[in-house]
Write a structure and sequence with these properties.
single chain, alpha+beta, five-stranded antiparallel sheet, four-stranded antiparallel sheet, 11 helices, 11 strands, 23% strand, elongated
Length: 329
């Protein structure tokens, strides 16, 4: 027969799964009487775990927010999911300020894993490989991230201290629309109230964020993720490239994603079926052109280079090299 302490911990695990659990349901799951469930609830309350009693026809017991994090009960699959999330977060750079925080959290879970679960995890990690490089960017400060997230949710202005890529520091008032994770970094998009224009800021370059009084209305139109991708696709770089490619939107996006290029209908009178092949105008702003000829070749779709001429020469040179190699015995 399970020890009462074990049943108390099982009760905590049941309540942590969410919702309100009736006394009858808990008694059945624990194999005890209703009055024993009430006694176990009292044990949790004595341990400063905030269990609420809900009255009424659909009443029962549930966990309420407390002043501290109570002991967290995880099943085997839940523990694996949390650990894999920590590993993936560290790998992609999408962690918050202290890398040590994710490492100590993982270590705490690893320390109490049953041996059979730990072996499953080790087996998976040994077999797991990532196609991208580990995240190398500095993670954002957790306090900054949470402050800006709160400002986004409640549409409150926030004052930020920001350091740009050239090391210039400034203080700005931001109307934050949303937070976006992209390519291993965190970004916030919103209106810089001082100049009345939309801007995108890297969260790891924000050293302080303070909520301000007042509120603002979020604009209609593209969402935060679309704004970030569009900003990357239209950023100022050395070369402006314009192409016409005959194919579907999916075919073009497979090689030139939204964060790299913008697409529009070359013939606006054509249908808008994304699966239909048609001429699409593709615009890019890039620092270098040498990577584009192989991408265009891999598309295997008819294309026309409108500008720049330098790209046309690079594509011709690549075609000549490929033809020369193909003719060799």
């Amino acid at each position: 027969m399970p020890h009462p302490t074990g049943r108390v911990l099982t009760l905590l695990e049941l309540l942590q799964s969410g919702g309100t659990r009736t006394g009858a349901e808990l008694a059945a799951r624990l194999g005890v009487e209703g009055r024993t469930v009430r006694r176990y609830v009292d044990h949790l309350i004595d341990l400063d775990i905030p269990v609420e009693s809900v009255r009424g026809r659909y009443g029962g017991y549930r966990l309420a927010p407390g002043y501290r994090l109570p002991p967290l009960m995880l099943g085997d699959d839940e523990a694996l999911a949390v650990l894999l999330g920590l590993v993936a977060g560290r790998r992609t750079g999408l962690t918050t300020a202290e890398r040590a925080a994710s490492e100590t959290a993982a270590a705490k879970i690893r320390r109490v894993l049953p041996q059979h679960v730990a072996r499953r995890l080790d087996t998976l990690l040994e077999a797991l490989a990532f196609t991208d490089r580990p995240g190398e960017s500095d993670p954002p400060d957790a306090g900054v991230l949470l402050t800006i997230a709160d400002a986004v949710r409640h549409r409150r202005p926030v004052s930020i201290r920001y350091t740009d890529r050239d090391g210039r520091r400034s203080e700005r008032t931001l109307h934050a629309y949303g937070i976006v994770a992209h390519a291993g970094r965190w970004y916030v998009t919103g209106e810089d109230a001082g100049i009345g224009e939309d801007r995108i800021f890297r969260l790891d370059r924000i050293v302080d964020a303070r909520p301000l009084p007042g509120s603002f209305e979020a604009p209609a139109g593209p969402g935060p993720a679309e704004r970030v991708l569009s900003a990357f696709a239209t950023a100022e770089y050395r070369h402006e490239v314009t192409l016409r490619i005959h194919g579907t939107v999916e075919q073009v996006r497979a090689r030139l994603p939204a964060g790299v290029a913008s697409l529009e209908e070359h013939d606006p009178t054509a249908g808008r079926d994304r699966t239909a092949e048609r001429w699409l105008r593709v615009e890019l702003r890039v620092e270098r052109l040498d990577w584009l000829p192989p991408v265009l070749a891999s598309l295997d779709r008819p294309f026309v280079i409108e500008r720049p001429d330098e790209l046309r020469h690079l594509v011709t040179a690549l075609a000549d090299r490929l033809a020369s190699c193909a003719r060799r015995a």
